[in-house]
Amino acid sequence: MSRHFGGVARIPGDPILGLMDAFRVDPNPVKIDLGVGVYKDSQGLTPIPRAVKEAERLLLQRETTKTYTGGHGDPLFGERLLALVFGEDAALLGAGLAGATQTPGGTGALRLAGEFIARSLPGRGIWLSDPTWPIHETLFAAVGLQVNHYPYVDGDNRLDVDAMLAALERIPHGDVVLLHACCHNPTGFDLGQDDWRRVLEVVRARELLPLLDFAYQGFGDGLEDDAWAVRLFAEALPELLVTSSCSKNFGLYRERTGALLVRCDDPERLQDVRSQLAFLARNLWSTPPAHGAAVVATILSDAALRGLWVEELDGMRRRVAALRSGLVEALQPFGLAERFAHVGRQRGMFSYTGMSAEQVARLRQDHSVYMVSSGRANVAGLDEARLGDLAQAIARVCA
Ligand code: LMR
């Protein structure tokens, strides 16, 4: 007889991580996992990059302590990550106008940003793209922020920049707008440079605070190109927040490695903000997990390791791009190449396929193909040898 937990309601599993569990127990030997956003190689494995393995070997030899790293985490990691995101020669870094607080992954960075907004910028709402990563919705609601939406795709599954801009123009002054810096999750539709300039003008005119979620640097068009919008905003605006993740580009998923980056207009103000972040982090996780950040700092501090990592990351990016066009080609014999042509144009790991929740459910029931119910497919989980099978399954449920 329960005295305490009897009234606890059961809620559905996580919309994305829950798929991992369901896939694992599916006995079908030809099942296909296009759920959670992880990169898989042609063997269906999520490899540890060689640069990471080598950095780990070096760390094993060099590491002398396991003492705490401090509230903002590993300073070398912070310094290297700031340069990776804002650019090696960014003037704002030289002027001491940006800082990094290490967090458990990009999700930790988002949570820290949400807590900071709720505590230090009371009354500000947050605006998310519709659709967005489902955890954005629940995470910001959990910290008590008012969550609102701006349109992003139209009813025909096309990026709708005009509708987005029209909505941004109506956002109350001072509110926070979350923008996906590249490789939009879940759609894979990214803004072009002219679109970004237009968004910047609205953000500036309405004095909005941008929160740039940057989880896929290197998976769109390359490390530097993917940072273009972040750098445009960081140069043009006096204040902004960036959540950076090392999960995908360093293959460090379970090591929970990321950071909240803050750009301020004044070094003293930056320290004020950082004092709040350290306080909040202390109350959330005390100090961040060290290993992944030490790996990243090691790679980014060593020219040879960095070169190897960039090569490996470029290889993953090129392979995902080839899988995109390969899937469209495989759909050709079924007369579906045009209908799914957007898959070839989208960027990053994900494709918003345009398939309905009902079609996604049939893919899973009849063909053991696992996708998020929104119709999002993780293209980076595809196997080139199975593109024909997948195309056939898609053709069956779309018939
Ligand atoms: C995804 O959207 O699949 C990834 O960002 C992984 C996650 O944590 O959901």
Automatic annotation (TrEMBL):
GO cellular component: cytosol
Annotated keywords: Aminotransferase, Pyridoxal phosphate, Transferase
Record keyword Cell cycle present: no
GO molecular function: identical protein binding; L-aspartate:2-oxoglutarate aminotransferase activity; L-tyrosine-2-oxoglutarate transaminase activity; pyridoxal phosphate binding
Domain Aminotransferase class I/classII large intervals: 31-394
InterPro entries membership: Aminotransferase_I/II_large, Asp_trans, PyrdxlP-dep_Trfase, PyrdxlP-dep_Trfase_major, PyrdxlP-dep_Trfase_small
Domain of life: Bacteria
Keyword rRNA processing applies: no
A single GO BP: L-phenylalanine biosynthetic process from chorismate via phenylpyruvate
Family label: Belongs to the class-I pyridoxal-phosphate-dependent aminotransferase family.
Entry-linked NCBIfam families: PRK09257.1
Descriptive protein name: Aspartate/tyrosine/aromatic aminotransferase
Organism: Pseudomonas mangiferae
